[in-house]
Amino acid sequence: MIEVNLNNLWKELPPDVKLVAVSKYYPVEAIERAYKAGQRVFAESRPQDFAVKVEQLPKDIEWHFIGHLQTNKLKLVLPYASLVQSVDSRHLLDAIEKWGKDNDKVIQVLLEIHIGAEQTKQGFAEEEALDILFNADKFPHVRFRGLMAMATNTDDESIVDADFARIDSFMAYLVDLFPELEGFDQLSIGMSGDYKIALRHGATMVRIGSAIFAEQ
Predict the structure, then answer these.
(1) Tell me: the pLDDT tens digits for 94-123?
(2) Do residues 22 and 53 lie in contact, with contact meaning Cβ atoms separated by under 8 Å?
């Protein structure tokens, strides 16, 4: 089923939208099947699992980190992640900058924006993200690539649509406001249950897990 699911998604997604296979709940064997089918971008959310899987799987995989990242776990993630999608606090951003300086590496990140109704979700308010980008020169070891967000967890598609429209508009505003931020062009929205809505609102990456890996 993994191979069939991937083929169906590749046919459905526009060519300029990156499919990020969320493998965080699935074993190495499932990732290997997806890899052999042609998938090359995978995402994990637990640092320990991430570090283990990186060692066990092919080296040409493009790994993304999408979970809440504690500053004491940076060494498990930053050496391997092509993109940290879930930078959700100034404290974490400062720690990533320090790690990058200490290890002579520039870390590519997305700022996670809180757009959903749930107060428990992580992420910056729009005003906080603006303040960070106005001071982007304070983070020479961080490359800001765009935004990430999760819509409200609801079956009401109109609410999800409004959430994605909001971040799409904010992303466009930031691109116009900060033309000096080279490569700031990625919007990671949409998961297995709502990616079709996200595609209508400027998604350049969709994070798909169960629609790839879960046995139907």
Answers:
(1) 999 999 999 999 999 999 999 887 776 789
(2) no
2-213, CATH topology level: TIM Barrel (3.20.20)
What's the CA gap between 75 and 83, in Å, rounded? 14
Strand ranges (E), 5-61 = 18-22, 41-44
The pTM assigned to this predicted structure is 0.95
Return the residue matching tokens 């959700």: 88
Helix, strand or coil for residue 203? coil
Q: Over the stretch 168-191, which tens digit does the pLDDT of each residue have?
A: 999 999 999 999 999 999 999 999
Name residues whose C-beta falls within 8 Å of residue 83's C-beta, 6 or more positions apart in sequence: 62, 64, 65, 108, 109, 110, 145
User: What does each C-alpha distance from 101 to 41, 69, 76, 80, 210 come to in angstroms?
Assistant: 26, 18, 16, 16, 37
What are the extents of the domains in the chain?
2-213
